[in-house]
Amino acid sequence: MTRILSFAAFTALAATACTTVPQSPPAEPQATSLYDYRIVDPDSGQAMALPQLVSELQDTDVVFIGEFHGHNGAHLFQARLQQALYQQQPLQVLAMEQFTVDQQPTLDRYLAGELGEAEMIEDADAWDNYKASYRPLVDFALTHQLPVVAGNAPAQLVRCVGRQGPDYLTRARKDLQALLPDDPFYGTAPYREKFLATLTDHQHGPGDPERLENSYRAQLLRDNTMASRIVQALADHPGAQVVHTNGTFHSEHHLGTVAALKARAPELTVRVISPVVGNVPATHVPQDDRDKGDYLYYLRPLQEDYLDRDRELQAMMKRFRQASEINCET
């Protein structure tokens, strides 16, 4: 995972806050390629086969599958789990961080056969790694005529809240405001502490307190929008099981989107599956990892994107300039 060198770049780009996970002591079985994953029960430390995991998720209303964006093993695991859960519960809804709520009509047109894939990718402003990472999930839903929910908050609102603070929503376009949930900045103290600590760590210093707080509010806007979309999906499809994909920070420790969901619908049963980079522990799962989810899956680490720090900074600033094209004054 690329290290973040610029706080300004981080806050402008913050699609998802991520943390670097230290590797655990070597043990078998281990992931031997970037497509491999090893599922583990964090309490017992025992390896699990996919059918066992699926069986234990049978009566779960919402299954959160955390990911490291762009990791081959994470996306393969998501696709296999989605398909296996469908075999057990065909009434399934796929909800995704990777599409924003204002793009739901475009996504629906694609699912209805009114757009080609390239048209959908362009019109819905799909993530750059859509074809490599999320195409199997959406294609499975398309093939089996399953709903796909665009869960994330509109990009303009997230970016502008991050720059100008939560009051920006009162000045935002009315059509975008209408898509937002009640209490869009609901949060919990442990999540705030975790988020600000992560930003401070990436910045290698305390940073600007106001910008830190605005970044946190932007993160909450994402989380609460996704949570409200899950609640709506279950209301629209009674008895369905929602499979939700998101960056792991949004669901780890049952914080973020999970906490926002529980605040809105405490009666729902929720399970969180979180990735860990490194080897499966030889004896027991460390507490820091154990608390991340109801189930864990271990992945091989990706290679560093940059060994040259100057080139890394140049790449980050290029992305920062592209993100800055959003105009918060209109």
TrEMBL record:
Q: Record's PROSITE patterns?
A: PROKAR_LIPOPROTEIN (PS51257)
As given in the record, the signal peptide range reads 1-17
UniProt xrefs under Pfam families: Cofac_haem_bdg (PF04187)
Q: Does the keyword Lipoprotein apply?
A: yes
Keywords in UniProt for this one? Lipoprotein, Signal
- Limits of the Haem-binding uptake Tiki superfamily ChaN domain: 53-260
Q: What InterPro entries does UniProt report for this protein, alphabetically? A: Cofac_haem-bd_dom (IPR007314)
What protein name applies here?
ChaN family lipoprotein
Q: Which organism is it from?
A: Marinobacter xestospongiae
